[in-house]
Amino acid sequence: MYHNSESSYKCIIPIKKLEKAPPSSPPPSSPPTPLPTNISHLVLGVSGSVKAWGDRRSYFREWYRPNVTKGYIFFDKEPTQDILPWPDYLPPYRVSENTTQLEVYSRHINPDVIRIVRTILETFREGDKDARWYIMGDDDTIFFLDNLVELLGRYDHTKYFYIGGISECIKSNFDFSFEMAFGGAGFALSYPLVEALVANLDQCIGVYPFYFVSDQILSACIADLGVPLTSEKGFHQIDLVDDISGLLSAHPQTPLISLHHLDIALPIFPNMDRHKSVRHLMKPAKHDQSRLLQQTVCYHKPKNWAFSIAWGYSAYIYEQFTPRSILRRPFETFTPWSLKKRPPDYMFNTRAITDNSCEAPHIFYLRSVKRVHNRNNNGSSNSYSNDTVEIMTTYARYKQRKLPPCSSNHSADYIKKIRVYSPVTKLNFAENRGECCDVLNVNNKNTAEVKLRACMKTEIIE
Hints:
InterPro entries: DUF604. This is Fringe-related protein. It comes from Tanacetum cinerariifolium. By secondary structure, this protein is of the alpha/beta class. The chain has two domains: 39-237, Spore Coat Polysaccharide Biosynthesis Protein SpsA, Chain A (Alpha-Beta Complex); 295-453, no CATH class. The protein contains eleven helices and 19 strands. The strands form four sheets. An eight-stranded mixed beta sheet has the order 11-12-13-15-16-17-19-18, with helices on one face. A hairpin with a 3-residue loop joins strand 12 and strand 13. Helix 1 (50-63) packs parallel to helix 10. The longest helix is centred in the first third of the chain and has 14 residues, at 50-63. The model is unreliable at 1-18 and 378-386 (pLDDT under 50).
């Protein structure tokens, strides 16, 4: 017999004494998340004229934020005594470097623009810390800084970006470029782009002695770096004259970034001068820049009326239902920069001014803006809740239309003012959709009331 040896003894397996593992090194830390873009990351470089500054400084004062906004004004010469001493509520001024010694100066078709082109170079040399974006503009450019910060926050400041707007007029773009940011409207350059641009800027200026304006030269130098224009419709050159209320009352669905040439166009509010008009527009801007000029349309079916609200600026009542696709086209209250109308004149569709009672609106302009307790939704003028607040803008009738009603018993002639209630929360442009509104009341003596709100998912405005 064979004996099963496996059952007769136990197999002993030697066990090594476990040694302590060396301490593990901490995982590599990820780079800190950069802070969202804020106003401290913007540096302004403004090209100014000593001769024009006396009339333009009041515009500048309305939007510039002392001790908050970084920037410089570069004058063509030393300031004269009439604009000195220099106030502390304005950015520091500089006198542009002498460009007459540059080789290109003597052969340039318009040598005075070389100074303006080099404003970006001189601004960069100031060496501001934490700069992400350089904002260039003229001394009559009006910026809406909250909207500008929000817009630039959508872009990666570590990449090469050239952001601005073209002219409203086809001819201006044809004469200069459809791929050029117009400097009066202002434009934004990311830090990496500016760093690359200024390295060879004087050399690049010498390549383009035949370009008449500074924007052309700078745009060409940026294009030679391989960077295209990123166009944003909120930058407004305003190459228009006369009454621009038609344009402002049908603003494109994008944040308002800038306005220019307001000393050329008629005052944007009737019965006010230009400077008071700008100051008046800044009142709603201080409450909510995100909604400023944003168009909202709603309808009152019992009276067959259409309301078009350009928040913080104007309100229109039409005595018939008119589709939003039509109302978003501005009335041609203005004239092209060339002063000659040879259609097509504009980079957008317009509507002709009409005396047709069903197509001509009743026009109201902003009178006041304030915060109020939130209204309940029962439409009662005296019903409020105390938990939240909203913004109430009031628009007063400009003048009587002096037209017969569109249809019997539906005249809006009795309406003297319109109150519009809007949320205190900022408008979210990332959703790429405008707001809707409800007509709360048109029977309270001479006042109509409208409430802005978010549109429902499948809601169509009709």
